Sequence to fold (297 residues):
Amino acid sequence: MANIILVTAEEGLAAELLRVLDPQQHRITLCEGPISAIAALRVGSTGCKLIALNMSRNRNEEWEALDRISEAVAFSGAAIKIVCFSLVYWGAQMQLAVERRGARFVYIQ
Amino acid sequence: MSTSSRFVPLLRAIDVVVAEQRELAAAGPHLTIWHRFQQQGTRCAAGEEVWAVSLDGPVGGVPIRLSLAVRILTDYLARHRHVPQSASQIEAGIRSDPFYFRHGSNVRTSARQTRSISRSMLKVYVPRFRVAFRAASGDAGLLVNPDSVLISEPTDGNEILYRLKARVDWRHIPLGCSDSSIPLVGLR
Fold:
């Protein structure tokens, strides 16, 4: 079991993911964007171990969100991992760019 | 493909990350310390050089950019990682160990191949290690807090004890092995 902050603006996907993650006994905090994710991160009581970030659109704001969240994680000093996922395959460069930022990347078909 | 089965890769990635965090919390990150100029039939013998220290993460081994003095300190703390030691103990340990005072002497060079670690300089080297480790941990995809790797522990007095919390492997490069033929498995 892990405390996970799920960052996605897509409500349908969020509901679907909550349904999938629930039986795994993970505790999920749902956030629409980086601001609420960082706020959730700062609330120590969440005891967050992992941040799952939706990057399916591959837009600038999603990369900025990743950068802001990575910085917040680095400053927090806590051992929190970031896993980025995408429902769209944008090529190998996307995975490399995510991994260069110290996060993991998962492509969901 | 059913709705839930398409998320299997994400669920597996989450499982891996959670397992990795448990391992990190229990034993710390994995470091590889590379010794160069190894003579045949010896291992970690005096005369070898602490050539590099790398941090192993999910995206491979990443060299931690450390100066000679900090590499020597890291090697010493790695060998004695189960016993927290004060600055004086570290200084005495390094000065009395032939591995360190004959460091790199298997090869003659124009420059000195070793450093004597003093108590006062330790206060400089510890933050330097942490800065270099932080940079490497980002590159290695680990984001580990360096304070939890090179740990400073208070005592009942004024002394601070230092301890390296990490899993460590030593690898050796034989004397006469050229850089191009060094088997740097996983080292970027």
Observations:
- The mean pLDDT of chain A is 88.
- Residues 3-107 of chain A form a domain with the Rossmann fold fold (CATH 3.40.50.2300).
- Chain A touches chain B at residues 2, 4, 16-17, 19-21, 24, 26, 49-50, 52, 70, 73-74, 77-83, 85, 99-104, 106-109 (CB under 8 Å).
